Structures are given as structure tokens and as C-alpha cells.
């Protein structure tokens, strides 16, 4: 399952691996309020935005999910790994330190990780939650999906868990429902997020040009 954000979606034409990862995912959640708004302004059949943050909260609050210890978190840094495990254990999970894998910095042109693949093959977690950035996590999820000998639930919700742990801007649920979670991120770290979200305006051009078709390079 992938939850693409608008700043990552603008690369869908130039980044064939990202495009393929989205196309082959079993579930794609329309989390981007900007993308959903553009779609609904230009199409008769409307989309309802589904919040990736709300999905993650519902998933983590599910009592049956909490009963399993068979979860692997894929995190970008050690301190986030610790914070994520601490948060999940505080809400009812019982995760050990080895329930998290700190990912290396991947080459976006070829996201592969044989070390992680061996780990997943040995541990066979029921759920894999990938907490990496957009444009990378989807490719890593597709890589695992195509190389594993079983079918775990691979959930690519990126930074959503960091909103819960406090490692990123706290986003009130009302702000998430009203499509302005991005604004809280911009207030917290304008140097990082303002340029990122300005880049997302390119999505308008892509949607007007290609409509429902998949943008292909060339």
C-alpha cells in the first residue's frame, strides 16, 4: 500500500521506477489534498481524499493488529527508530529493538537492499511499515514485494508516524481533515518544506496534460 504525496507525484513522468511502483501497488491511497482537489476540478467522477495519517492511526489502534509482535519498521535514522518503537509500545504494542531496521541512504535510481531482503526473508514479519521519504519508500516496497517468497502487508506511510511521535510537526486531526497539514510542516521547517511544496504546483500541469492517462517518459 502506498500513500503518494504531491511533491513526490510530480516526478511520476521522469522517474520510471517510481511510476512503476505506484502502478503495481495493490492499494494507492489518495492522501494528497492538492491532487484530490485538482482531480475533482477536472473530472466528472470525484475522488474522496483518504488521509494516510488517519489510516495509520486506525491501523495502529486495531486491537487485533496490536496482538501481533510480528511487525518490522523500516526507519531512516536510529533516533527515529527508537522513537517509533517507544510510541508503538506506549499505545499497546510489545516490540523489541530488533523490530526496526534502520535503512541506508538509497540511490533513488535503483532502490535495492539485499541485507533488508535477507532479514525479511528470515523473520517473515506479517506487516512491514516503511517510514521513509516519498519517491524512495514506494520503490523499496515494490522491491520487497517482487523478491519475497511470501506476501506480507507492506505499508508505505512515510512520515505519518513522525507526526505521532513528535519528530515532525504535530498536525491536529482537524488540520489533516481540512487538507492543511502541509502548512504546519512549512511553519516548523520553512527552509525544507516551502520549496518542496512549491515544487508540487507542477502537478497541475501534468494532470491537465495527461488527464487519466499515465505520464510516460519521452
How would you describe what is shown here?
With 218 residues, the protein is an alpha/beta fold. It has one domain. Helix content is 50%, strand content 7%. The protein has a 4-stranded parallel β-sheet, sandwiched between helices. The model has no long low-confidence stretch (mean pLDDT 87).
Topology:
Blueprint: H1 6-9, H2 16-24, H3 33-42, H4 52-60, H5 63-67, E1 71-75, H6 78-90, E2 100-102, H7 114-123, E3 127-130, H8 137-147, E4 153-156, H9 160-165, H10 173-177, H11 181-188, H12 190-199, H13 202-210
Parallel strand pairs: 1-2, 1-3, 3-4
**What proportion strand?**
5-15%
- Number-wise, the strands total 4
Indicate the mean pLDDT: 87
Biggest β-sheet strands, sense, barrel: 4 strands, parallel
Low-confidence stretches: none
Short description:
By secondary structure, this protein is of the alpha/beta class.
Notable characteristics:
218 residues, alpha/beta, single chain, globular, four-stranded parallel β-sheet, 50% helix, 4 strands
Amino acid at each position: 500500500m502506498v500513500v503518494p504525496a504531491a511533491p513526490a507525484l510530480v516526478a511520476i513522468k521522469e522517474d520510471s521506477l517510481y511510476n512503476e511502483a505506484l502502478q503495481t501497488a495493490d492499494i494507492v491511497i489518495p492522501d494528497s489534498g492538492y491532487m484530490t482537489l485538482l482531480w475533482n476540478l477536472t473530472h466528472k467522477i470525484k475522488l474522496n481524499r483518504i488521509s494516510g495519517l488517519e489510516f495509520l492511526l486506525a491501523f495502529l489502534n486495531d486491537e487485533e493488529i496490536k496482538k501481533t509482535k510480528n511487525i518490522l519498521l523500516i526507519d531512516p535514522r536510529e533516533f527515529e527508530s527508537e522513537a517509533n518503537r517507544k510510541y508503538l509500545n506506549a499505545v499497546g504494542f510489545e516490540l523489541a529493538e530488533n523490530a526496526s531496521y534502520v535503512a541506508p541512504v538509497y540511490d533513488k535510481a535503483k532502490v535495492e537492499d539485499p541485507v533488508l531482503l535477507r532479514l525479511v526473508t528470515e523473520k517473515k514479519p506479517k506487516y512491514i511499515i516503511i517510514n521513509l521519504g516519498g519517491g524512495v519508500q514506494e520503490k523499496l516496497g515494490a522491491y520487497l514485494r517482487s523478491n519475497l517468497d511470501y506476501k506480507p502487508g507492506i505499508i508505505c506511510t512515510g512520515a505519518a508516524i513522525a507526526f505521532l511521535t513528535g519528530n515532525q510537526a504535530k498536525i491536529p486531526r482537524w488540520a489533516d481533515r481540512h487538507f492543511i497539514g502541509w502548512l504546519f510542516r512549512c511553519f516548523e521547517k520553512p527552509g525544507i518544506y516551502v520549496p518542496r511544496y512549491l515544487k508540487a504546483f507542477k502537478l497541475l500541469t501534468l494532470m491537465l496534460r495527461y488527464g487519466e492517462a499515465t505520464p510516460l517518459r519521452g
